Amino acid sequence: MTDVLRRGRASLAFSFFAQGATFALLVTRIPAIQDRYGVSDALLPAFLAAVPILAGVGSVTTEQLVKRIRPSRLLRWSQPVVLLALLGVGSGDRLVELAVALGAFGLAVGALDASMNMLGVSLQRTYGRSIMLGFHATYSLGGIVGASLAWVGAHWHLSLFVSYLPVVLVLLPAAFVGSRWYVDGDAASGLEADAGKGQGESGALVFRLLLPLCLVMTFAYIGDSTVSNWSAKYLQDVLGSSEQLATVPYNVYMVMTLVGRAVGDFGVRRFGAVAVVRLGAVVAALGFAVVAVAPGAWVGMLGFTLLGLGLCVLVPQTFAAAGRLFPGASDAAIARLNIFNYVGFLIGSPLVGALGDAWNYRGAMLVPMVLVLATLGYARSFAPEPDRYGDGHERPRTADVGRGSNGL
């Protein structure tokens, strides 16, 4: 059983890595995509908004599909669709072909994100200890690799198809082979009774209880999209950096998300999820404050470094908290929660841009700072479910019965 879980964990980590690389290859080559298809500046926002909107549709659809199909099977088939859709973006030359490819990418990525996190949460429940941040760390690593490959393609003036084809040829068969070892956590541990819960407070998805986590997810992605969309412009236009230096903050941010997530699981095991989330929110808010008052580019870089360390823990822990809150309906909770990933992405960039144009960009950075700080008010939602036996201790998890407290 240990080998089954270890293979399942490794194969799922590779899936997170592949998705991070794929998404980075898409978003970092947007200017090249715009040039290839002749997308006007006025039309580009519509194409960009369509992807997260369709991803939300894909996540909602996944919530219904997992009632009949295991998340592992959905992940097995959605990841190849995402990779092929990326190749489709690089191989067409008409707007309708771009629309079809991006549409397929958006729908499939919604199912992919939801099913990956469903498997991650169920495996964490089976392990009996925090491992979710590790999965998201491999996503960050994939994003760094993908962005680096995109830079190479742009530097050598490679076409989109030539840039994307080798990546797809490597990742597609590897992901498909690795999918043989995906495990649904309940199946791996024999928790049929726990997986079959559909009654009572733990088995019913009560959106009122999930709402605090939905808000945290939205705030986190507003912060993340602010960095990804505005860091370069802010450093160059507001802090007076060179064009070359302006490309550095996002790379620094991604590296720090990798570092923070790589060590984050140890922090959760030692201090608990509530403490880690609170610390992450405070560090992220401090990062936005430093960016807002920075006198120059290098101090601004320090702010973006703090943002990477702070924001990186919020999203993985939000998924994990949803799994703990609804142990008998975790798949539905995660699919519903995943929608707010895209809500935050859709709100963040236009919000900061509108405030920057109407007011100033320094002031605009204070808005995501306040939203991230609001996470502190919801931090108790990340606590383990209280004991129902009235003895004041955390309720024992079925997955931990017969196993040591350190898990596997």
TrEMBL record:
<feature type="transmembrane region" description="Helical">
    <location>
        <begin position="12"/>
        <end position="30"/>
    </location>
</feature>
<keyword id="KW-0472">Membrane</keyword>
<feature type="transmembrane region" description="Helical">
    <location>
        <begin position="204"/>
        <end position="223"/>
    </location>
</feature>
<feature type="compositionally biased region" description="Basic and acidic residues">
    <location>
        <begin position="387"/>
        <end position="400"/>
    </location>
</feature>
<keyword id="KW-0812">Transmembrane</keyword>
<dbReference type="Pfam" id="PF07690">
    <property type="entry name" value="MFS_1"/>
</dbReference>
<feature type="transmembrane region" description="Helical">
    <location>
        <begin position="304"/>
        <end position="327"/>
    </location>
</feature>
<dbReference type="InterPro" id="IPR020846">
    <property type="entry name" value="MFS_dom"/>
</dbReference>
<feature type="transmembrane region" description="Helical">
    <location>
        <begin position="42"/>
        <end position="62"/>
    </location>
</feature>
<feature type="region of interest" description="Disordered">
    <location>
        <begin position="387"/>
        <end position="408"/>
    </location>
</feature>
<feature type="transmembrane region" description="Helical">
    <location>
        <begin position="160"/>
        <end position="183"/>
    </location>
</feature>
<dbReference type="InterPro" id="IPR011701">
    <property type="entry name" value="MFS"/>
</dbReference>
<feature type="transmembrane region" description="Helical">
    <location>
        <begin position="131"/>
        <end position="154"/>
    </location>
</feature>
<feature type="transmembrane region" description="Helical">
    <location>
        <begin position="361"/>
        <end position="379"/>
    </location>
</feature>
<protein>
    <submittedName>
        <fullName>MFS transporter</fullName>
    </submittedName>
</protein>
<feature type="transmembrane region" description="Helical">
    <location>
        <begin position="275"/>
        <end position="298"/>
    </location>
</feature>
<dbReference type="InterPro" id="IPR036259">
    <property type="entry name" value="MFS_trans_sf"/>
</dbReference>
<feature type="transmembrane region" description="Helical">
    <location>
        <begin position="74"/>
        <end position="92"/>
    </location>
</feature>
<feature type="transmembrane region" description="Helical">
    <location>
        <begin position="339"/>
        <end position="355"/>
    </location>
</feature>
<feature type="domain" description="Major facilitator superfamily (MFS) profile">
    <location>
        <begin position="210"/>
        <end position="408"/>
    </location>
</feature>
<feature type="transmembrane region" description="Helical">
    <location>
        <begin position="98"/>
        <end position="119"/>
    </location>
</feature>
<dbReference type="InterPro" id="IPR051788">
    <property type="entry name" value="MFS_Transporter"/>
</dbReference>
<feature type="transmembrane region" description="Helical">
    <location>
        <begin position="250"/>
        <end position="268"/>
    </location>
</feature>
<keyword id="KW-1133">Transmembrane helix</keyword>
